[in-house]
Amino acid sequence: MAAALGLLVATSAALSQGSSALWVEVDRAQDVGAIRDVFGVNRRPGFADRNGGTSMNAANLYAAFGVSQVRLHDAGLDLCPTYTAASKLNTGADPVQEVQGCELSGTGSIPVFTWTPLSSADADLNLGSNYDFSNADTALNETAATGAAVYLRLGESYNGPNNTGDPVAWSKVATNIYRHVIGQFKPTPGVAAVDPVFVEVHNEPDGGFWRGTAADFYTLFRETVTRVRAAAGATGRSVRIGGPGFTRSILTSSQVAGNPANGFIAGVGRENLDFYSAHLYSTCTTATLASTANFLRSLRTLVDGQGGTGLPLHITEWNIGLGNQCGNALYGEARMQSFASGVLTQMQDPAHAIEAAHFYAGVPIMGLFDFTSVSGKARVNPSAWAFWAHSRLRGATQTALQVCQGATCASGTAAETMPLLGLAARQGDATTVVLTNDGTNAQATTLRVRNIGSARLDATLLTPPPTAQDLPTTGSPLQADTVALQSLLAQPTRETRSGLQPQNGTLELTVTVPARGLLVVQLAPPPTLTSQADCLFDWGERHYPTYLQPAPQSSQTLGDYYYRAYPGSRTYLGISLSGSRLLFLDDRGGGIQDLGALDGWLATAGCN
Asked: Cα–Cα distance between 573 and 566 in angstroms, integer?
């Protein structure tokens, strides 16, 4: 009823504004649900160039632009390089050939690379000396440095094994990798145990990543889920596990007889799925947000039709297209900002029930960040600013937003046929709106926010740079220079409109969303010093997770100090109320450090 009344009000407004008027209406009184954590990426932040001579690390970029999860695919946690007591055979060749290493590629049809533990005995499968976790530990340490959660994928990477002669032994090895991650099997000194936010079994079994039978795959999947759940329960943990990361062709592969995607949910059992995962890659320069919307709706219909009604979806890889089809230059074009922002908006549509998502990739190809296009530089691609914008909604409650033109209105998350898409969320008295324009012309619109409880508001309008930005690199491994990165984060165009007075609980603003770009609108009561400090502390927790652990923490007041304490890192971050200085204290020594004037930090963090 509330939605119908809102549409009636919007339609009436349309008639009064004229047939071609474009406006966006937000209703703070109509909650949609919690903002979904779709701010993940694939690939750990560290990597080496193709010659293996120069190492690079994007951990500070992941943190700065709001990456919340790192899916550890193509990241060193594969079964083949981890469990060394296994046979590796090209069983598609005649005669069968032994494979050296853990990659097998060829021309023509996809080879059948069969990886099988040499023994099925638990004593051998649980023998620590059969495991090499060095790559896994590197990936875990690098991810920890970003402050993001681990999304654990159990399986193999591109050109890796795609078959096994023993699905049960496969599941036991996969479970021991999970047990290592949580610190319960062959723990490594100096590598912190991690509880993955999710565990995904396998990757693209409807494509080249599986060449065995569907029956064997279902056995592998069920056994892995059962054993990982048991391993978690044995230590008092809970785990959310599912999969299997079907390809972007899932809508057709699910119709092919003998493909694991055909009848997958019945094959593995609904009870063995906490979520269903698949991939979304569009068509490069011809990609449209209408096509991504249609894919997500069709995927929802497919899963529901297979018996997965209400089962959460994970889009564990997505991008405008695959690198070998698009060319790397496309990922640095301005259009990537609006495309990425549009998809992030669409994935908040509650009708899809998307629980998590991961852009492919953070680095080194098709990435938010690019260390290879310009020697000695770390490039921030336009898509990274979409994450910067949408991650501002994390932890907030999504509120109803409609985009209207003339007498036609659509939910902002499903407005792919309209000039703009929109997403709004509230947190306390504050409201944040992200508007996306995937068109080639700037769009002026009226933003109307209803059911505001504050008598006065300040509006901050933020527009990020539309083009790729190159930062100098420092250190070993190479990383984006910290000073240059902070300068870049202050670059978005900022417009402040102060002292706005809602009329009868409604505020109207005229705004312009740039072509192929996005606009962030933040509405909040005039700030106090402590509210600005809280904003800065939140920003610091995202950007300096190594020094501020665990996060988030609550603020406290002691005398002239307003601060937060971080027991994990034994540090304190605070301000002096009288002197307006930012202060830092490491409890292990060094005394209070004065980090400078508060005003400068507030400007850098976007909290002034």
From this structure: 8
153-186 pLDDT tens trace:
999 999 999 999 999 999 999 999 999 999 999 9
User: Is the pLDDT assigned to residue 12 strictly greater than 70?
Assistant: no
For residues 491 and 351, give the distance between their C-alpha atoms in angstroms, rounded to a whole number.
36
pTM score > 0.85 for this model?
yes
* Domain endpoint, select from 372, 393, 414: 393
Domain span holding position 23: 2-35+396-456+501-526
285 and 411 part of one domain: no
Helix H or strand E encompassing 61: helix 59-64
Q: Could you tell me the pLDDT band of residue 19, with boundaries at 50, 70 and 90?
A: low
For residues 587 and 569, give the distance between their C-alpha atoms in angstroms, rounded to a whole number: 9
Rounded to the nearest 5 degrees, what angle is found at the Cα of 466, between the Cα atoms of 461 and 468?
135
Measure CA 390 to chain center: 10
For 535-549, what is the mean pLDDT?
Answer: 87
The answer to the question of residue 471 being in a domain is no
As a dihedral over the C-alpha atoms of residue 252, residue 253, residue 254, residue 258, rounded to 10 degrees, the angle is 140
**Could you say which DSSP state residue 501 is in?**
-
Please check whether residue 487 lies inside any domain of the structure: no
In whole angstroms, how far apart are CA 402 and each of 22, 35, 344, 394? 11, 17, 16, 20
**Which H/E stretch holds residue 280?**
strand 276-281
Q: Nearest to residue 358, comparing CAs of 43, 33, 24, 2?
A: 43
> Starting at the edge strand that comes first in sequence, how are the strands of the sheet with 581-586 ordered?
556-558, 561-566, 571-576, 581-586, 592-597
Final residue of a domain: which of 353, 378, 393? 393
Beta 198-201 vs 86-90: how paired, if at all? Answer: unpaired
| Partners of residue 434 on adjacent β-strands | 423, 520
Same domain? For 123 and 247 the reply is yes
**Same domain for 447 and 300:** no
pLDDT score, position 3: 45
Q: Which residue has the higher pLDDT, 16 or 524?
A: 524
Please tell me whether residues 191 and 224 are part of one structural domain: yes
Picking from 333, 275, 271, 321, the residue whose alpha carbon sits closest to that of residue 295 is: 321
Is 6 among the domain residues?
yes
What angle, rounded to 10 degrees, do the helices at 167-181 and 214-234 form? 30
Q: Are residues 25 and 102 in the same domain?
A: no
Q: Give the count of domains, the chain.
A: 3
Q: Could you please report the per-residue DSSP string of 100-154?
A: -SS----SSSPP-EEEEES---HHHHT-GGGB--HHHHHHHHHHHHHTPEEEEEE
CATH number assigned to the domain comprising residue 509: 2.60.40.1500
Give 443's pLDDT tier (boundaries 50, 70, 90): very high
CATH number at residue 372: 3.20.20.80
| Mean confidence (pLDDT) of the chain | 93
User: Per-residue b/e over 335-371, b at no fewer than 16 CB within 10 Å?
Assistant: bbbbbbbbbbbbbbbeebbbbbbbbbbbbbbbbbbbb
- The count of residues in the chain is 608
- Asked if 83 and 169 sit in the same domain, the reply is yes
Residue 461 maps to a domain: no
Residue 163 sits in the same domain as residue 281? yes
Closest CA to 383 of 320, 339, 438, 337: 337
Note the pLDDT tens digit of each residue in 34-83.
999 999 999 999 998 877 678 999 999 999 999 999 999 998 899 999 99
Domain co-membership, 65 together with 202:
yes
